[in-house]
Write a structure and sequence with these properties.
CATH superfamily: Glycosidases
Strand order of the largest sheet: 1-2-3-4-5-6-7-13
Protein name: chitinase
Radius of gyration: 22 Å
Structural class: alpha/beta
Keywords: Signal
CATH topology: TIM Barrel
Number of helices: 12
Largest sheet: 8 strands, parallel, barrel
CATH architecture: Alpha-Beta Barrel
Order of helices and strands: HEEHEHHEHEHEHEEHEHEEEHEHH
Helix content: 25-40%
EC number: 3.2.1.14
Strand content: 15-25%
Pfam family, one: Glyco_hydro_18
InterPro entries: Chitinase_II/V-like_cat, GH, Glyco_hydro18_cat, Glycosyl_Hydrlase_18
Oligomer: single chain
CATH class: Alpha Beta
Number of domains: 1
Distance between the termini: 35 Å
Shape: globular
């Protein structure tokens, strides 16, 4: 009975969302669904607006298997996802493309092993294609997030030792594309900070784009524990810097999705420096943080943290976060919501639902005429799904009306239209 209800709902949604008469009909609305927060807003019409969804993650190491059978002659089974592709199909629009995301933050060894030689690349790619067939997915999202270096192990493994990955990365993608064939989707999650784009240059990007359908540019965590001064972790200006770098390297803007973060970040700061900065400029933007990672190992020192909107707010920062929500400021120039808590010495950075619709979508998606938007992740925005709803409504307006609001600065006018 439950399944039948959602089938009927999906059929109704198809009638409602047959497609716009004008505008950007192929605009992507891509969602990651994660094992950490495997919940979906099945009660909301906006879920039917999702064009692509990636289930995250399947570990990269399993794709280096030699042969398709185990020692007993039985076919290899793929690690089970937290939710099957078939089950997910019952909960989304029938037109939604479902992908398996491979890898993720810190998962590099499997990719490195698979990319080393023509033979290893062929084996890796063959296994990816076999997994797609076995799971019934529409494609894969490759989350080898930092090929060439600057990943989680950058302090322990110098970038010079990973320089070979810069040329191997597009070769691995090419092998995967060949194994998948032309009809399956191949996307890639890629860095948002220019200093991390070691494998994404004018020499490599054209080769990369010959294999992938589109890139998910991670325009979040743009302030991370490697930073030493406060800034926005998902701001408009640093998001534009990211997408502009890919465009300059040869990526068509229509093949870029820019990312939204459905979570909150906070960082510990140096009190005296932030007081001086605030007294001088009226804002703690650009003041010094405490050292956030071990200078020798890169290990997290526990001075930066994050939680999703679905999580309980950590008890030790509940009062500070409440102040951030009520007393925070939107930086119109940098394009980010922030708050410096002088009492707790904490810097808060996150997107509000209103800012996503009235600032992020117009100033990034529309201004650069990108191919779409994505978010990490859908379940992270539960149980209210306010950011997801705001994103979908703004996305839909762009899809239906095209680029008419691009470059406009009147946020109140845009809010009224939404």
């Amino acid at each position: 009975m439950f399944t039948g209800f959602w089938v009927v709902l999906n059929l109704l949604a198809m009638l409602v969302h047959m497609g716009p008469a004008s505008g950007s009909a192929d605009l992507r609305n891509f969602m990651y669904l994660t094992g950490q927060h495997p919940v979906m807003p099945v009660h909301m019409a906006e879920q039917q607006d999702i064009t692509h969804m990636a289930l995250a993650f399947m570990p990269s190491g399993v794709f280096n298997r030699r042969g398709q059978h185990d020692v007993d002659g039985n076919p290899h089974e793929w690690p089970p996802l937290f939710q099957s592709i078939n089950h997910t199909r019952m909960l989304v629009n029938p037109k939604t493309k479902l992908l398996v995301a491979i890898g993720g933050w810190g998962d590099t060894f499997g990719f490195e092993k698979g990319a080393q030689s023509p033979k290893s690349r062929q084996r890796f790619a063959h296994n990816v294609a076999a997994m797609v067939t076995a799971t019934g997915a529409d494609g894969v999202d490759i989350d080898w997030e930092y090929p060439g270096g600057n990943g989680e192990d950058y302090r322990e493994v110098p970038n010079a030792e990973k320089a070979w990955e810069i040329t191997a990365y597009p070769l691995l993608l090419a092998a995967i594309r060949e194994a998948l064939g032309p009809d399956k989707i191949l996307s890639a999650a890629v860095p948002g900070k220019p200093e991390d784009m070691l494998a994404f240059t004018p020499d490599t990007v054209p080769d990369i784009m010959r294999s992938v359908d589109f890139l998910n540019v991670m325009t979040y965590d743009l302030m991370n524990r490697r930073n030493t001064v406060t800034t926005h972790h998902s701001g408009v200006q640093n998001s534009l810097t990211a997408v502009d770098a890919y465009i300059a390297a040869g990526c068509d803007a229509r093949r870029i999705n820019f990312g939204l973060a459905f979570y909150v970040k906070y960082y510990k700061t140096e009190h005296d420096d932030c007081v001086r900065r605030k007294n001088q400029t009226g804002s703690a933007l650009g003041c010094r943080t405490l050292l956030m990672e071990d200078p020798d190992t890169g290990a997290d020192l526990g001075r930066a943290a994050a939680f999703s909107w679905h999580d309980n707010v950590p008890e030790e920062v509940q009062a500070s976060f409440a102040r951030a929500q009520t007393d925070g400021t939107y930086d119109k120039e940098g394009g980010g919501y922030y708050y410096w808590d002088e009492d707790a010495d904490l810097w808060w950075s996150f997107d509000t639902a209103e800012a996503i619709a009235s600032e992020k979508i117009p100033r990034v998606l529309q201004a650069r005429k990108l191919g779409g938007v994505f978010a990490w992740g859908l379940g992270e925005d539960g149980p209210k799904y306010e950011h997801f709803t705001s994103m979908c409504r703004a996305w839909k307006k762009v899809r239906d009306d095209g680029w008419g609001m691009a470059g406009r600065n009147n946020s109140s006018e845009i809010r009224d239209e939404l």
